[in-house]
Amino acid sequence: MNHSQGFLKDIQISCLVVGWLLSNTASIILSFRVWGGQSMTDSAPSWFFYSAEMIHSLFLINHLGDIFLEKHWKSVISRSVCDYFFEAREKAVDPENVPPVLQTPHHYLISIYRGKLFFLSVIQTEVPPLFVIEFLHRVADTFQDYFGECSESVISDNLVIVYELLEEMLDNGFPLATESNVLKEMIRPPNILRSVVNTLTGGSNVGETLPQGQLSNIPWRRAGVKYANNEAYFDVTEEIDAIVDKSGTTVSAEIQGVIEACVKLSGMPDLTMSFMNPRLLDDVSFHPCVRFRRWESERVLSFIPPDGNFTLMTYHISSQNLVAIPVYVKQSINFFEAGSCGRLDITIGPKQTMGKTVEDLKVTIHMPKAVLNANLTATQGNYTYDCTTKMLVWDIGKLNPQKLPNLRGSLSMQTGVPNPEENPSLNIDLKIQQLAISGLKVSRLDMYGEKYKPFKGVKYVTKAGKFQVRT
Amino acid sequence: MPYLGGEETVRELRRALSNPNVQSDPLRYRNTILKVIRTMSQGVDVSGLFSEMVKACATVDVVQKKLVYVFLCSYATLNPELSLLVINSLRKDCQDPNPMVRSLALRNMTNLRLPSLVEYVEQPLTAGLRDRAACVRRVAVLGWAKLHNLQPSSEIDAVVVNELYSLLRDPDPVVMVNCLRALEEILKEEGGVAINKPITHHLLNRLKECDIWGQCEVLRVLQRYRPQSEDELFDILSLLDSFLVSPHPPVMAATLSLFLSVSSSLPAVSLAALERVSGPLLAACGSGSREMRFAAVCHIQLLLRSVPGLLGVHYKRFFCGYAEPAYIKERKMQVLVELVNDENVAMILDELKGYCTDVNTDTAQAAISAIAVVQTMRDLVWVCPQCSDTVCLALEGCEETLQDIQGRQALLWLLGVYGERISSAPYTLEVLIDGVRSEASLGIKMELLTATMRLFLCRPAETQDMLGRLLHYCIEETTDMCMRDQALLYYRLLHCGIEETRKVLQGRRSDPSLGVLIGRPTKPVSQWARCFNTLEPLSQGAVEAESASRGSPEHMTYNPKPNADLSDTLSCSHIQEIHSGES
């Protein structure tokens, strides 16, 4: 209580000091009121607050456990802080199983595991975990965006740019510039031609000009964009996450959809995208450029697009009857007590493909440890079995409905080891071009605010996300 | 090779850096500096090159400057005197026409973190606050916070604080947010930045312009605000509504935190907010990032404490994928248990049964999963007796995978209560009874005794002999009083006749007609609201405390709770009552 009284006093003082705070003109600008109606009861309880400190240091660690990059935004913290992490890493056996949040006597360690790398942040006080995790992923995304992949070799090769990026992304532990197009104006991504030119001329990869994006009225679009060819392309990609059980019934199924855009339009175009069947979408998230009110009232996407590549929206369709399962799998995997061997027989056929061809079909099975080798024949495609990782991969390719692909044969097992109790599950990868499996279709795209006629295009593709068949 | 040959490398680098031929060739010079940074990031101590690097700072090449700054900021504290030499070139850069160079110089000036340099830094920082370019102002604002951290005891300059307050009105949203951050640090002693009505409304109105990090920051600071009227409160909530369903989990979580704090006196509003946020939270549970999924599931566990039925229909979202990391599987199973209701109980049990045998041979994983599964089933059986058949089927064969005390206790309890339906029950118990002398855990021994007694009542022929052995051991050999007392109690009970024994041991049960009972009573939102969006729900300790409080329905010796009277308990703490009740 004492604290809050002291606090009130502070407000008084600062109000006197800072003139504008006294003006009572400030009020909330509201378009309409959603919340209201209930009445207040008794007074509010006391509340705890955490200090504002954020990310102190970042360590990049490869899957072998070597720290190959470190960056400190506040004071320098010794590498020995990572020992707690290595301990947990030992315990977890698989790198995927390392818990993302570890507590040490003086710090919190929050890490993400991406592309066989750990991004380990050191934090000194209580922080919102979602914030830090999201930020670490943003760092990894930025590397991916700049270098095409996010691996140790690529990061070490581009050390200079990596340091430059990290310097711009955080200041004093607070996220600063994380938008890819803003960063790219400050630090140019590497490209082969330019690095050759740079080596010859000694030029640098620093933008010479002040980033424009920060000066335009619309934060996500820079002013004065000009293109000779004006074009807007959209990729609708849907991923099916499904679990199908032994008997072929769907245990769970949902679709994760995303619309990626590549918009290269001059000036300040204002686009409107409408769908044939917008009712399909109930769980959606948009790029900040989309006018949410128009979506709520008319179910159209109205937006002034950022320049270049961006994610327009993501959506999620979870009601199971809307999710078509494109393939069925007939399988039997048995391990025999006598003879230390097993049999495997898998057939895949089309189920609900809407008349399209299933491509890039691939089956991955993580075999039990006791399986030493596989001696199989595939009627289509090739299979490989990696004895160290115990991964059986069957790369099928295009699915021919007339002649269903089949993989069968025997598995040789370690002798003297009890039979594995569980059967491994099958992970399926596939791709269907020109189809959004949910049935989502863009009906039209209109442009306002500019005079020229742009090229427009929409492409659909369906992929398997986490698609798993249990045996 | 990291760590090895460090000295040799440093000597070589020094030679290269001070070679006039290298210095005159900008490209070679820069590459040498890059080599220094590489070596540094491999963990070799290259602080000995400080003076050479200071010289390299005087260059027009911005990239080279940046590289040198990386080096200087890492080692400045070791060489405070030499660092003085850098300050001149940094101050010159602060006058550069290019705003990028200005902001770079300003930032690194403050990153050196040397108290001795403060007097040289203040002037450029003051100028930086009034710079034309927003990117310089952003750096300058935070620079003051860093300066304050260097000498936290020093008097706060009221002029600077005022200037920072007025920069809250800066047209650039990042400058505004950075002002908040700086003021929070500088005014820490006074409780942070002053949050009054005009500031609050100003921040709220500009919230949309900020990036997601800025939004989180503003929302966090605003938790301190108490609306003065109900009207104002609901205006704020309405304004924040779209942030509550933000696609960015950090923003969504920060908004909910703010909702819960400002509406803490209105439980109905809090509950409505939880309902509204459940959609985005579920979406976060399906996020591509496993760390995000984990954090989201942990926070859902918090929500369920107050609104247990909230996500009942979405239970499938918590089914585990085969390749998911163990830490997510563990949490998902905990959530699944919470979501059990009449409709989905069969599906959930089926799913859990799958995990029981599906687990990888990896022992750690198997143990964790199996414990969770059996504990889960025990809770299920206790809570809704009609599903016990399914559990019994699932139970056979999973005794081997259990390693942990709680899990084994749970299994024993199940074997005792449903022994007649599990054909292998006596054999499982026999193995344990034969090894009872080497069993370390008292809890397991007690549970074993009770289970054997129960089994004896329904399958006397198979169990009589082993019960005799066990009672003999407990009464004659064991030194633990609790155990002896309990065994003696059973022994005397048996003397009273089988019917009497049955009455005691198979007394009260939860009523099958009750349908689904939700295990724990719902807790008010305020009980956990303050730890929402903090690390607390993610920590391992939280899980353990949670599961311990939900422990065995029988043996609640450590933490007896009001609902313990539901169980027909015979644990040591209750012996007295039952004894007197029966005699």
TrEMBL record, chain B:
Bilayer topology annotation: Peripheral membrane protein
Pfam families per UniProt: Adaptin_N (PF01602)
> Which GO biological process categories is it annotated with?
intracellular protein transport; vesicle-mediated transport
Q: Where is this region: Disordered?
A: 542-565
Q: Please list the GO terms describing molecular function.
A: clathrin binding
Q: Which residues form the Clathrin/coatomer adaptor adaptin-like N-terminal domain?
A: 12-372
Query: Does this UniProt record's set of keywords contain Kinase?
Result: no
Region forming the signal peptide: none
Which InterPro entries does the annotation name?
AP_beta, AP_complex_bsu_1_2_4, ARM-like, ARM-type_fold, Clathrin/coatomer_adapt-like_N
The UniProt keywords, alphabetically, are: Membrane, Protein transport, Transport
SUPFAM superfamilies assigned to the protein according to its UniProt record, in alphabetical order: ARM repeat
Q: What is its main location?
A: membrane
**Which Gene3D superfamilies does UniProt cross-reference here?**
Leucine-rich Repeat Variant (1.25.10.10)
Q: Where in the cell is it found?
A: Endomembrane system
Assigned GO CC terms: endomembrane system; membrane coat
Q: Does the keyword Ribosomal protein apply?
A: no
Name the family the entry cites: Belongs to the adaptor complexes large subunit family.
Q: What is this protein called?
A: AP complex subunit beta
The source organism is Oreochromis niloticus (Nile tilapia)
